[in-house]
């Protein structure tokens, strides 16, 4: 079902500081900054070498990412796998008895179609499945755009 | 510097139960089980689709992975990136002011040469750099071998 690692999600308190750190690792391409209002966070995709990292910073205490940072600290938040058909993949996971956070696909960063599996079903690893359309499937996915 | 995601490290309490869960996600190829004595853990690489996952299970409370699980629970433990030259990559990270756990490369799963960067320097994300030799660079890296 999984085709590749689409990106690694990293919970950070300060996106600008995080970007400075990532730049130490090598040249980065920074995607467009997006506000994900329903999750009370801002997100940006950063391509470090061949590895896309999604920096997510909570915008208030009601964000699940704020709760994550409070409980576990900054760091690895989720793994996203690319799939060809998000609706079929979610159905397949459900049929396997896995617990889904998103039963229906929703729209995520850079207009992807995505859904999360509950970490209770995935060994404690919050897992996102992502379908991207041709033309929007090359990291950093959204138009490169330096974050101010 | 980074070429690709080499694997994702997952801290688990029970490797057999974890393998059963991974098999729900699709066909898996299970590498050879290895004891990593210096870290008091056992490890096995599992290829799920195109994504290699290293299951690591502590063998006693002195393992840093046991401490990790106690503090944060089972789940994402580290990200490993493939590099062409591990010694040069570690030196480059050090020159960038990053904190290293391993100043010198050491031997890891499937006879790879690896080194860890301290999460304090990598946004809270425990990061491993891995160099693999040709012929040993295809997941699950060690000879496929079903874990008993």
Distance between the termini of chain A: 37 Å
- Continuous helix count of chain A: 3
Q: Architecture of chain A in CATH? A: Roll
SSE class of chain A: alpha+beta
The two chains with the largest interface, and their residue counts, are: A-B, 39 and 39 residues
How does this model look, in words?
The structure is a homodimer of 148-residue chains. Chain A is an alpha+beta fold and 148 residues long. The first copy, chain A, has a single domain, classed as Roll (2,3-Dihydroxybiphenyl 1,2-Dioxygenase, domain 1), CATH 3.10.180. The first copy, chain A, has 3 helices and 9 strands; from the N terminus they run βαββββαβαβββ. Chain A has helices at 15-24, 64-72, 86-95; strands spanning 4-11, 28-30, 34-36, 41-48, 51-58, 75-82, 106-107, 113-117, 127-131. In chain A, a hairpin with a 5-residue loop joins strand 7 (106-107) and strand 8. Chain A is globular, with a radius of gyration of 15 Å. At the A-B interface, strand 1, helix 1 and strand 6 of A face strand 1, helix 1 and strand 6 of B.
Secondary structure topology:
The structure is a homodimer of 148-residue chains.
Chain A: E1 4-11, H1 15-24, E2 28-30, E3 34-36, E4 41-48, E5 51-58, H2 64-72, E6 75-82, H3 86-95, E7 106-107, E8 113-117, E9 127-131
Parallel strand pairs in A: 1-5, 6-9
Antiparallel strand pairs in A: 1-6, 2-4, 3-4, 4-5, 7-8, 8-9
Features:
alpha+beta, homodimer, 20% helix, 3 helices, 2,3-Dihydroxybiphenyl 1,2-Dioxygenase, domain 1, 148 residues
């Amino acid at each position: 079902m999984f085709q590749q690692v689409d990106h690694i999600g990293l919970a950070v308190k300060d996106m600008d500081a995080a970007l400075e750190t990532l730049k130490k690792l090598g040249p980065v391409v920074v995607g467009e900054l997006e506000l994900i209002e329903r999750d009370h966070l801002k997100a940006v995709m950063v391509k470090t070498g061949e590895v896309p990292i999604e920096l997510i910073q909570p915008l208030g205490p009601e964000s699940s990412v704020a709760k994550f940072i409070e409980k576990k600290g900054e760091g690895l938040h989720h793994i996203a796998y690319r799939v060809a058909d998000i609706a079929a993949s979610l159905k397949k996971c459900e049929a396997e008895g896995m617990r889904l956070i998103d039963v229906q696909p929703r729209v995520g960063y850079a207009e992807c179609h995505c859904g999360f599996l509950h970490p209770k079903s995935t060994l404690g690893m919050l897992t996102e499945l992502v379908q991207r359309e041709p033309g929007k499937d090359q990291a950093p996915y959204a138009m490169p755009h330096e974050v101010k």
